[in-house]
Amino acid sequence: MRSLRICSLGNYDVINKNGDRASKAICVLWFFETKSVITTQRRFRTTYMKDPPSDNSIRRWLTQFQETGSVLHRKGAGRPSTSQENVDRIQETFTRSPRKSTKQAAVQLHMPHTTIWNVLHNRLHLNAYKVQIVQALHPNDKPRRFEFAEQILTRIEDDENYLRKWFFSDESTFHVSGKVNKHNCRIWGSENPHDYRELERDSPKVNVWCALSHTKVIGPFFFAETTINSF
C-alpha cells in the first residue's frame, strides 16, 4: 500500500479554503487511520456540519490515492489533435478542388466530417462562399440595355405616372438538365473568389412566373418547357 503522508490540518482551515480537494484528502486520511467508513462519515458530519460522502466515494478516493498518489481527477487524454499531416492533406484537397463539399472530402480522406470542418475553419481559416447564378450575356446585350435605360428615363420625365402603368415580373426556372442548388454549391477559400455559374436559359425547363404592378399581383403561373415571353 502506498504510504500516506498528509500533514496535520490543525482546525481544518485548509478544508474550507480548498473545498472538495481538501475534504477528499481528509476523508482518505481518516479512513486510512480508522479503517472504518462509518467512523470517517461521522467525523465528516461533525467537522463539516453536512451529509458525508457515500461509502463508495470514500473507498474510491482511497483506491485512487493508492494508485496515483492523489485524490484529484486525472486529466483525460481528450480528443486527439488533428496531425499536421492530415491538415496538409485537407489543404491540398481543397486547393486542388475548392468546390468539393466537406462530406465528399471526409469520404475521400477517410476522416470524420467534423474534423474536415474544424480544420477548414480553425486551422486553415477558410470560408465557404456561395456561387452566384447569373444569366449568360451576349456581346450586344449591354448596348441594348443602355438604349433601353435612356428611353425609360425620357418617358418618366414626360409622364410622372408612367411607372404606375408598369408591371414588374420574374420567373423561377427549373431546368431538366439539373438546376444549381446555391445552398449546396460552395467554394472554399480565404477570400471571396467572386465566382459565378452561367445559366443557359434556352434548355428544356419548367418556369414559375409572377408579376406585380402598382396596385396588384398577378400569378403565379406555371409554364412547361417554355417561357412567358414565348407567347
Automatic annotation (TrEMBL):
Domain DUF4817: start-end pairs: 25-71
Domain of life where this protein originates: Eukaryota
PANTHER family recorded: HTH PSQ-TYPE DOMAIN-CONTAINING PROTEIN, TRANSPOSABLE ELEMENT TC3 TRANSPOSASE-LIKE PROTEIN
Pfam families: DUF4817 (PF16087)
Species whose genome carries this gene: Araneus ventricosus
Signal peptide: none
GO molecular function terms noted in the UniProt entry: nucleic acid binding
Protein's UniProt name: DUF4817 domain-containing protein
GO cellular component, one term: nucleus
Compartment list: Nucleus
